[in-house]
Amino acid sequence: MTAGRSLFDKIWQRHAILTRPDGAVLLHVGRHLVHDGSRAAFRQLAERGLTLHSPSRTFATADHYVPTAPTAEVAPHRQEMIAALAAHAATHGIACFAPGDPRQGIVHVVGPEQGITLPGLVMVCGDSHTASHGALGALAFGIGASEVAHVLATQTLWQSRRPGSMRITVEGRLGNGVAPKDVVLAIIARIGAAGGTGRVIEYAGSTFRAMSIEGRLTVCNMSIEAGARAGMVAPDDTTFAYLAGRPFAPQGAAWERAVAYWRTLPSDADAAFDADVTLDAAAIVPMATWGTSPESALPVDGRIPDPDREPDADRRQAMRRALDYMDLRPGTPVDAIPIDRVFIGSCTNARIEDIRAAARVVAGRRVRVPAWVVPGSGLVKRQAEAEGLDRVLTAAGLEWRDPGCSMCVGMNGDVVPPGAHCASTSNRNFVGRQGPGARTHLMSPAMAAAAALTGHITDVRTMLAGGA
Amino acid sequence: MQPFTTVDGKAVALDMPNVDTDQIIPARFLWRPRGDGYGGLLFHDLRHDAGGAPKPGFPLDAPAAEGAAVLVAERNFGCGSSREHAVWALADAGMRVVIAPSFGDIFYSNCFKNGLLPIVLPEARCAELRAALARNPGARLIVDLAEQTVTGPVGVNDGFAIDRFPVDPLRRELLLAGEDEIGFTRRHEAAIAAFEADYAAAMPWL
Ligand code: SF4
Q: Rounded to whole angstroms, how far apart are CA atoms A320 and A327?
């Protein structure tokens, strides 16, 4: 009797070109995404005098270095990164969404939106949040510059061994005001920032089956914050409905054939996983982080833990260091943490549903602290404007900007001032991530919007109930 | 790439878990060309205050750490972003080996492409090594890739041992030979072409 195969097993086996006796696998890459931080890889290719192996499998968009205000003056070194991408794309004949193109945006927003991301594919990108694309049932993971060059030159990637597997099952309905971001923060708080290291996570259970593609993208996006190589959700009718008619998705007869194949991909009932974790959706509440690792996520009604009660000496020291950097004290209620800035954006939470969620909270109210909304792509921006969300947001005092990575990483110059506490819908609260000295608190778009209204972390459920 | 065989180098300890790649090299430096060298930017914001002035006390800045080639770190070292610049910064600063209980996956993989050897040793052994290095600043470790051993600390009479470490055979082979991975893969061109023909027939929509 052979054990059943998981979604991951099926994609892995289908893309193995060859397997060496020592277990190393040469994996075929179905589609490859590049961005304006990929210059070094193109240079490596040029230094070797190589051309692109599969231009039609390669897609480019500018995101990390692009300005998010039309009037912004772009520093020459940033302009150079953006121009280099366009030049390399032109040289090699790659589809490229440059600034000004309505399709331009954050690579992990653009891939699904354009139907570049498809179920059953191996997808890679020189960016750690490539795991996002697993939301559509692809095996997608981030790689470094040398590996990007390798994929550009060969359309393949060596994997020296098969990653382990982990299934995270969440069952039940999420409460009002509880978002996919809260689910993934609760998962990371449970398994830790290295809980998924060396593994591919499959998110299973009724909570994910009921979740939109936007929500699944948020969850898969943060797989890397649990240390995992990739995160994925089995493709289903929600996936197919999302993809139908997208520019780079199959059309007509090819669509029917593709869907028939995609329906064979979900994990077999008896598929084995190296680890299994289960959470109850009803027990998940809005979350926020207090420290400098995504694992420092707490329920909004929690209190900052006391390092003196931490038995492990290294962890104790790490907690003290985080408290010091964040200028916070043990025992402080999470909802008493002050907020000076708000950033709603990034590949984690800059899709249309995220913007709708933020608009719903601030509608008819007024923000107390500077708050930005940075849509994930030109098309998200357009759609939000067509729905009138930009007017709701600006009427409440938020700033409505142009698409890009922006304050998630600050590479384009959008940074949080030193010492300021920022409620951010991005994925990393590392020391200095949003700018030197910046203090990041990760949360959902609705929670960030609530914090913008009050100037401190706030349980968004009280606002949805008409309180505060 | 230069072959990696053995390293006999001064070792330095870094007692911080979850050192992410933003700490190893902050994002604002990533636009700089590779050729400019990243060594001076290694752990930049841990070694400088907000105004850019040097902050005292960082282990790599101790006089005894001068010329160190081996870093003994804590769990989940190199977690976070895929930026290969983190490896460039370590390599350009003279590091040849990083030893830790665990690594961020992408960082781990990036190391091999740049002649930097990441070694996983048990958490308790890493802690012992870091403690021994703290007691004996400037002590050396000897790393032999062919034998897959870490020996030391040498030059002091304190906790000396020979540890065996695991490494994937293909990565070991390429590093020992100093072989370029793209060149190596291109020798499999026939297999790639055959795969692609079959793949295109099965999935004509791609
Ligand atoms: S939004 Fe942030 S995490 Fe996402 S790709 Fe851009 S910089 Fe990376």
A: 10
Distance CA A131, CA A336 (A): 33
Q: Find how far residue B77's CA is from the centre of its chain.
A: 9
Tokens of A432: 């200095």
Q: Where are the beta strands (DSSP E) in B38-126?
A: 70-72, 97-100, 117-120
A258 and A175 co-located in one domain: yes
**CB-based contact B155:B140 (threshold 8 Å):** yes
Residue A35 CA: nearest ligand 1 atom is 5
The yes-or-no verdict on residue A468 having pLDDT over 50 is: no
DSSP A413: S
Whole-number average pLDDT of chain A: 96
pTM: 0.96
Query: What does the DSSP 8-state code read for residue A105?
Result: B
Please count the residue pairs, one from chain A and one from chain B, whose beta carbons lie less than 8 angstroms apart: 165
Is the CB of A22 less than 8 angstroms away from the CB of B83? no
Element (H, E) at A441: strand A439-442
Contact A66, A40 (CB under 8 A): no
Let me know whether A300 and A271 are in one domain: no
In the predicted model, residues of chain B with pLDDT beneath 70 are none
- Contacting residues of B for A249, CB less than 8 Å apart: 205
pLDDT, position A314: 82
Can you say whether residue B169 is alpha, beta or left, with left for phi > 0 and alpha for psi between -120 and 50 degrees? Answer: alpha
Q: Do A405 and A454 share a structural domain?
A: yes
ipTM: 0.95
Our count of domains for chain A comes to 2
Residue percentage of chain A with pLDDT more than 90: 96
Distance, in Å, from the CA atom of A221 to the CA atom of A376, rounded to the nearest integer, reads 13
CA–CA distance, A234 with A237 (Å, rounded to integer)? 10
Indicate the pairing of strand A341-344 with strand A421-424: parallel
Work out the pLDDT band at A466, boundaries 50, 70, 90.
low
What number does the ligand 1 atom closest to the CA of A409 have? 7
Is B84 within 8 Å of A146 when comparing Cβ atoms?
A: yes
pLDDT of residue A337: 98
Cβ atoms of A303 and B4 closer than 8 Å = no
Of A17, A143, A258, the CB nearest to B106: A143
Nearest CA distance, B5 vs chain A (angstrom): 20
- Give the CATH number for residue B111: 3.20.19.10
